[in-house]
Amino acid sequence: MRAAQVIEFGGPEVLVAAEVAEPVVGPGQVLVAVAAADTIFVETQVRSGWGREFFPVTPPYVPGGGIAGTVRAVGEGVDPAWTGRRVVASVGFTGGYAELAVAPVEALAVVPDGVGFTDAAALVHDGVTAAKLLDATAVRSGEQVLVVGASGGMGTVLVQLAKAAGARVVGVARGGRKTALVRELGADAVVDATRPDWVDQARDALGGAGADVVLDGVGGEVGLAAFALVANGGRFSAHGAPTGGFAPVDRADAEARGVRLLGIGDVQLAAHEHAELAAQALHAAASGALRPVIGATFPLERAASAHEAIESRELLGKTVITV
Q1: Beta-sheet strands, E only, within 159-247
Q2: Global pTM?
Q3: Residue 266: its pLDDT value, please?
Q4: Is residue 173 a contact partner of residue 146, using CB atoms and an 8 Å limit?
């Protein structure tokens, strides 16, 4: 079958089109004919050789942990009624950039009528993680929420979900196109991170007290600067590291200010929990309550170009691979 395969660690050029063996469906699993695959920034980092202590993959391997498609076959113990259904699934960290992928049945969420596979793939990870982040940080109506990296795949979802929860949302994004998108998605105020005084701008937008919750999807020094904007007693989620590392927050400082620190480890989910939140995100998209923002799609054969686009950070929202 056709797939995109990482042949060695390195730049986007190591992600090449290849013919690989079809996966074999086992007990409790389904075989999905993939129509679209999610892409996330960490996949580009792992491809480059980063994070091997967390992601023990060895080339050659097929990346891709989030898929949308149609169930082609079921394994032993799986209800045959799944066959032919439109689904999304999180399949771990590998196997998604391919014509066929295997998923555990408990990981499946049905794609509602009216939601295309590309939109579904855009939500299979970011829609789920965003919902879990808002739950973990306990965002409440009337609170102030600062979203750092607000124009990215997850950031665009966080802005919408935080607004739906009744929060006042301040978004941080880079450049005019991105700040315009964040404003269009409903943010109450938007700050351009390319400005040298963006922290002061964000502080003014938040008012004197600061943010009750900061959702940092950027990390590094940007994330650390955003930490200073958390109100005493607030919550800070350092869940993004496209800069190469999570925000290096001083835990003693956070403790002294009564700030609760959260990270990506606080939003890990069992397969069935992931499926439940994916179903909620998909139904929100079907009803028009949640808008997936897709900056570009690339065919499977151009998966390397998809990674280049992600790493350039020029696109708005999500990058999706179509099969």
Answers
A1: 168-173, 189-192, 211-216, 230-238
A2: 0.93
A3: 83
A4: no
